Amino acid sequence: xxxxxxxxxxxxxxxxxxxxxxxxxxxxxxxxxxxxxxxxxxxxxxxxxxxxxxxxxxxxxxxxxxxxxxxxxxxxxxxxxxxxxxxxxxxxxxxxxxxxxxxxxxxxxxxxxxxxxxxxxxxxxxxxxxxxxxxxxxxxxxxxxxxxxxxxxxxxxxxxxxxxxxxxxxxxxxxxxxxxxxxxxxxxxxxxxxxxxxxxxxxxxxxxxxxxxxxxxxxxxxxxxxxxxxxxxxxxxxxxxxxxxxxxxxxxxxxxxxxxxxxxxxxxxxx
Length: 271
Ligand SMILES: NC(=O)c1ccc[n+]([C@@H]2O[C@H](COP(=O)([O-])OP(=O)(O)OC[C@H]3O[C@@H](n4cnc5c(N)ncnc54)[C@H](O)[C@@H]3O)[C@@H](O)[C@H]2O)c1
Hints:
This protein is of the alpha/beta class and 271 residues long. Helix content is 49%, strand content 14%.
């Protein structure tokens, strides 16, 4: 019920600013669940057609967006961001379905399902898996999406990092390292893709109480208290706190901005 009301509010606000992304096509990785679900909704509400790409099933979200907005504004595909064949299929399917790709949101990651582990106890296979999803995944997405953006001489890539890359977090060194790589990846890409008129920026959320985070993160209460103390705004953050920044980075309003990190965290870190 709450989700339904939230979705209606997002859609209603989006209708007022529909032109911002109308005619654009976006892929949101990890777009079916958690924060990514809100990104998919916000982009569609701002007028984009959205491919909800996730290892989880995104059909209910795509159906709901098609029912509430226009009938062809969303599609979904199950895929594994760490697997190159799967990424190639996703890009081909998106181009078949929507004809273009203007916006890529590299949001999929191993995050909420990771338990805290000391550096001395992290299983090497787990370390490699976190890097495969959180770092190789965004690389594969850019490798296969960028040729289309280069051909169109335009595009927006938004890489989702984390405030933890700036301030560190004990017992999550695999995750924090992967998010630090994303900040560097953005900077490297901005230099390489800038001459093709492709903007590449990082959105770095602080601790966000997403439904998946609350369900799965055992340490959330402890983390929450510490994070609140570090913030200029002494309140919790929720997925809708991020969507304004995401739509801005996806829109032409950010056309002279690239290689930057936008931290949306209630004023915890300064980038
Ligand atoms: N929630 C927070 O406090 C917070 C803070 C900073 C950054 N972030 C980042 O925001 C993003 C979303 O976070 P969230 O809280 O929704 O976390 P989450 O763990 O709930 O979401 C991750 C999403 O990625 C998908 N995914 C996982 N493995 C995949 C794979 N191999 N292929 C395709 N999809 C896969 C999941 O199904 C899910 O939809 C992540 O990049 C996370 O690192 C989250």
